[in-house]
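Example for tutorial group B:
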């Protein structure tokens, strides 16, 4: 599993900001928008398609993506979807997109051209070949892996996290519902939202993330969806043992 991006919706550096983190020479402070690549024996699937998806895949030398699962439909998690166009062409079939109904509506509204009947004068591969597959909270199989969706709350919006074996990815969360906690027990790795130190209406800050880590007690926790308020080295120095900021390109066994 590779963390393709670990930044908040603005990314880091933030346009027009000249704070120490935005101007840092440490590559771990350079954060593209959040996403994950999961390597399996049957190929690679993604969690979300960030606006930097093309650059992320090139950086990680990922040549083919076979499917995507979506946490939610916000722009920083969705708007790299057109970069999947090449993969449908190479696979010679539609790339499946696994998502909830509200995300499906957002995809159809934002990328309607990909689902309309193609004009006869368009060449093969001119538009993405995509197939939406609706999911809920039941586990499902994808490329030989069992995916367990978990309900999270992002402000007032219900979103999904995903547990794959003993690794859970829980970005964009401000509340973990009671029914979700048991699904996150016994983890080797928890990847969880921690935007900044200060409270936020739609995201965990570091204090809330650490409370979740303390309750779940994974063997290792990584904080993601990180803003420019958190420097990699100085923040890690004050985090408890077994908790670290994530960074773009971090590899996690599962």
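The residue assignment follows.
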């Amino acid at each position: 599993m590779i963390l393709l991006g670990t930044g908040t919706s603005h990314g880091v550096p933030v346009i027009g900001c000249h704070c120490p983190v935005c101007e840092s020479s440490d590559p771990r402070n350079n954060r593209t928008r959040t996403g994950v690549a999961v390597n399996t024996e049957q190929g690679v699937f993604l969690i979300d398609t960030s606006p930097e998806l093309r650059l992320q895949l090139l950086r990680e030398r990922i040549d083919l993506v076979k499917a995507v699962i979506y946490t939610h439909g916000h722009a920083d998690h969705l708007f790299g979807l057109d970069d999947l166009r090449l993969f449908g062409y190479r696979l010679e079939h539609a790339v499946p997109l696994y998502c909830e109904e509200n995300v499906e509506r957002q995809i159809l509204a934002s990328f309607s051209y990909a689902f309309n009947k193609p004009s006869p004068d368009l060449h093969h591969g001119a538009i993405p070949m995509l197939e939406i597959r609706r999911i809920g909270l039941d586990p499902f199989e994808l490329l030989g892996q069992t995916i367990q969706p978990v309900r999270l709350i992002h402000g007032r919006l219900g979103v999904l996290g995903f547990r794959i074996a003993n690794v859970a990815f829980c970005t964009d969360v401000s509340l973990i519902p009671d029914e979700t906690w048991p699904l996150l027990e016994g983890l080797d790795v928890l990847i969880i939202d921690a935007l900044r130190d200060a409270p936020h209406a739609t995201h965990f800050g570091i204090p809330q993330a650490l409370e979740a880590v303390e309750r779940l007690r994974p063997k290792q926790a990584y904080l993601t969806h990180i803003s420019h308020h958190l420097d990699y080295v100085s923040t890690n120095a004050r985090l408890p043992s077994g908790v670290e900021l994530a960074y773009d390109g971090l590899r996690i066994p599962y």
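Residues 84 and 128 are 7 Å apart (CA to CA). Compare this with the pattern of hydrophobic and polar residues in the output above.
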